[in-house]
Structure formats: C-alpha cells, structure tokens
Amino acid sequence: MGVLSSMPTVADGRLLWRETATVTYLEPLALSAHPRLRCAFTTRHAGRSGQALNLSFDKGERTAVLAHRQHVLQALGLEQTTLCTVRQVHGNQVCIVDAAMLQHDLTGIATDALVTNLPRVALGVLVADCLPVVLYALDTPVIALVHAGRMGTYHRVVQHTLETIAQRFATPPAQVHAVLGPAIGACCYTLDIGAVGPFQDQFPIWEQFCIPHGPERWTMDLLTANTLQLQAAGVPAEQIDTASICTACHKHDLYSHRAEGQEAGRSMAIVALTSPARASSLPAESSISTPSAARA
Fold first, then answer.
1. CA nearest to 121, candidates 73, 69, 54, 56
2. In CATH, 3-185+221-274 is 3.60.140.10
C-alpha cells in the first residue's frame, strides 16, 4: 500500500502508521499506549480494502460515509462511543460537549472547537489541509479538538479553546498538552496580500509564520502560527508535538483541497477519553508499521 512507503517518517517518528482491513490512520506515538486516550488522524485509504476513506457527508454518499465512520471507530476500539462532529465555519466558537449537549444534534452547530470531559465520547473534525489540533489534560481530565485553518488561526481559535478549558474545567494552559496533526505546509500554502494583510494588521509576529515568496506573495506556516499561539497562551513548548506532514505534498495519501480542488474528500481527526481499564494494545486486526523509505 502506497501510504507505507511514500510518506516520510513524521516529526522524527512521532506518528505511528496503523492499518486494518478497512481503515488506515496515523496515531500520535505519545498517546498510542495511553490507557485513557484514543487519538487518530485518518488517511484517504480505507485500509486493505483498496477503497477511498472519505468521511464527509458533503463529499460522498451518506450510507458509505456512515459505514466508513463506523469502521474508524471500530479500528480505534471506540465502537461503543458517540462520535460528535459539528458544522465547521472557520471561526473561533467553542462547543462544550456535556451530557445536556449530547441530547441535541451537534451537526448543525456552527463551531470549530469541541471540548469534553466525558468518557466514551469521540470528538471529530474534518480536514483537507486545515490544521487539526488535539488538546488534552489528563489530570482533569479534559480533551479538545480544534479545526485551525487560515481563518481559524486568524481568529485565534486555539487560544479561545484554551480559555474555555481554563474557565470551565479549572485547567490552566500550563497543564495542557497539544498534538498538531497533518496540514498543508508552508512549502505549498501560497497566499496573496488579501489573505496575508489581516495578519499583518493583527499579529506583530506575523513574519514568523508568513514567509515572502515573490512580489506580494507569501507562504503561510500553520504549524508555526498555532504553535506560537499555544506558547503565548501558556502551553510549555515541551508539551507541544507537531506532525510535519504536508497534505498537499502527500495528496496521494492525505486529502488536500489546495492540491485537488473541489474533488477532495475529507479526513478526520478524532480524540476520545476512554475508561481507565482500556487495554493499551491495538484492536486485534490492526497492524503497525513505519515507512521504510523515509526522509528526515
């Protein structure tokens, strides 16, 4: 399967490659054996089936997408959980998923960040270049999942999420850990003055994540921009893991709207708190491998 040979070792091996008969996904090494967490970034491959793994209802037939989502939950050992997704709008609104909220249909809620302290609730955001940010503090415990594209970054959605975690769950940023998943890299994310101008106006450090790329052109580094926001909010640098995979460079394995246009499907970032008794091993049919043809 191409995913195992064509993509680089990620962030010095910080992501593990997982594959079942129906799902291929990436799992943060730091969380792979944790008894209280499950976390994954899906690829575009439906495991060994040879099918595509699109998880967006807007990009595929509803019955097929529902089946794919269930396969992902099964691969993660989360088939008994409730998967919560929302209507992502590139803003900075934060949705707290509590027992009362679970009584409603979250899919119509316009928000770009989900926070919960409930076990057996899986949070999911759809991505195809935008940056998924996983936040967790296991002493509380509390988890969050953030959809941070260009406009979400401009609206400081990760910082708003950290404020919610601090205010509603009494957990300061210093106790929060972060994992930044695959996203379009500065190598491929070229912008004009219309897109970069708002950052010039609102971010004194904008030149640290917007790199000149010709007359009135820049490339934007979403990873760096959001890492800086996390650190400015008080998350220690050593508690931030970044997965430096560019989705556009690796469009054969990950969905990329910038590289594929409207035809691009959607991957999903997922995180869930599980019961303390969860076994740290993979589900029975899963396998793990690391790309052999890797570049640093």
1. 73
2. yes
